[in-house]
Structure to design on (430 residues):
């Protein structure tokens, strides 16, 4: 029975020091009564031997179960120095000085806080302590430092809250180690320049590639602070711009055939098909060919995807040409490499710039503006094409943390929670 209690309470490390242990209930609360063996203790002041003086009862919260709270009643021995009369307490293996929460409980709380969806509130309920006590434990134990900049660094922004001074924070991510480097309080250009200028030049020079979205301020900051790094624009954002242009073309052509009523049975067939199958213009052609036949409600029949696409492209010559050009760029984006992409990219730019449709001409100007960054997006690190995909995945986790916590108002605490929960290798202090 004695051994079972020790194992149940995870007290094996101090088994040899326990003199007495009893478990009982007091007003329905489980109580663990513990007394340790007497020790020979020297005075830390004069190094003389001490003698036993008295016991001091310490009540320590011990979260063994989420069902009910446990209390350790620890009879701590007090000793007195024979020479200088100083009082000394024996070593307390259950909690730190002045703390009524056990080390076991604190460790359990910190492990729970690694969960993306775990909040201070539900962890406080689980461990039967107050929310503020959980926050205090976290603030004291976790202080995330900036990680060293990686050779390939991703940069992106994340919406935090309208209640913060700055609505958007800036996230730095190491592409190769898959770790958050830092979460910066704002994405403002001057703030970022000042932030990076505080980092040693040798560390900044070690950065070879910076991957970013198509935000001009980021390009200016990176060009100034990392002059030796190649700037790569994330290919997903280029494709997003292309899809928006393609969709705008589809909508303009579709609206030519709208009769007036909103119900499909009163619309022209062209309008109906362009509206119902809008996704045909946004997905890869290869993906469309893998789909099963689709049901066309207005015709009460099934069509193969090839038939639907052929019908859609027959509606307008400009629509067909733009679709083929869009697919050509998609194919280029998937198959090109850094060392042999210049000629094809130049040809595509000319095709877009000379296109009769204004949306594609605008996209052509975008390609000119970001030409070198697009070429750099074909660079490879650790056998992977560089992209902002990993940081976008991390941003979704950050959003889950913010949503679950309903907004952590103190930014430093939110930053620590993000880096502690996502990196999961932060050291625990104190």
């Amino acid at each position: 029975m004695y051994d079972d209690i020790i194992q149940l309470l995870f007290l094996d490390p101090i088994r040899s020091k326990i003199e007495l242990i009893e478990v009982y209930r007091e007003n329905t609360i489980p109580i663990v009564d513990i007394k340790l063996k007497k020790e020979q203790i020297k005075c830390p002041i004069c190094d003389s031997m001490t003698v036993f003086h008295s016991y001091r009862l310490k009540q320590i919260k011990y979260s063994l179960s989420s069902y009910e709270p446990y209390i350790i009643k620890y009879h701590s021995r007090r000793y007195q120095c024979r020479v200088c009369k100083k009082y000394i307490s024996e070593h307390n293996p259950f909690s730190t000085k002045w703390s009524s929460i056990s080390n076991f409980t604190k460790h359990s709380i910190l492990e729970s806080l690694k969960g993306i969806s775990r909040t201070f509130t539900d962890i406080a309920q689980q461990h039967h302590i107050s929310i503020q006590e959980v926050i205090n434990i976290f603030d004291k134990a976790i202080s995330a430092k900036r990680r060293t900049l990686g050779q390939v660094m991703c940069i992106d922004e994340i919406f935090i809250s309208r209640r913060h001074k700055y609505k958007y924070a800036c996230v730095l991510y190491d592409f190769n180690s898959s770790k958050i480097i830092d979460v910066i309080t704002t994405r403002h250009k001057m703030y970022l320049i000042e932030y990076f200028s505080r980092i040693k030049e040798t560390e900044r020079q070690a950065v070879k590639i910076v991957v970013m979205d198509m935000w001009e301020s980021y390009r200016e900051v990176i060009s100034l602070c990392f002059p030796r790094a190649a700037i790569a624009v994330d290919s997903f954002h280029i494709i997003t711009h292309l899809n928006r242009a393609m969709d705008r073309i589809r909508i303009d052509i579709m609206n030519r055939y709208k009769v007036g009523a909103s119900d499909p049975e009163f619309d022209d067939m062209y309008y109906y098909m362009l509206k119902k199958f809008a996704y045909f213009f946004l997905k890869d052609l290869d993906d469309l060919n893998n789909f099963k036949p689709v049901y066309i409600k207005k015709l009460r029949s099934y069509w193969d995807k090839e038939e639907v696409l052929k019908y859609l492209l027959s509606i307008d010559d400009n629509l067909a040409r733009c679709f083929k050009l869009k697919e050509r760029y998609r194919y280029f984006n998937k198959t090109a490499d850094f060392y042999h992409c210049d000629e094809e990219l130049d040809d595509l730019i000319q095709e877009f710039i000379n296109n009769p449709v204004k949306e594609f001409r605008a996209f052509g100007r975008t390609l000119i503006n970001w030409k070198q960054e697009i070429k750099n997006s074909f660079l490879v690190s650790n056998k992977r094409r560089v992209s902002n995909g990993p940081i976008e995945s991390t941003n979704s986790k950050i959003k889950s943390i913010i949503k679950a916590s309903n907004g952590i108002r103190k930014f430093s605490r939110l930053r620590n929670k993000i880096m502690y929960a996502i990196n999961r290798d932060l050291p625990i202090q104190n």
User: Anything to note?
Assistant: The chain has 17 helices and 14 strands. The radius of gyration is 32 Å.
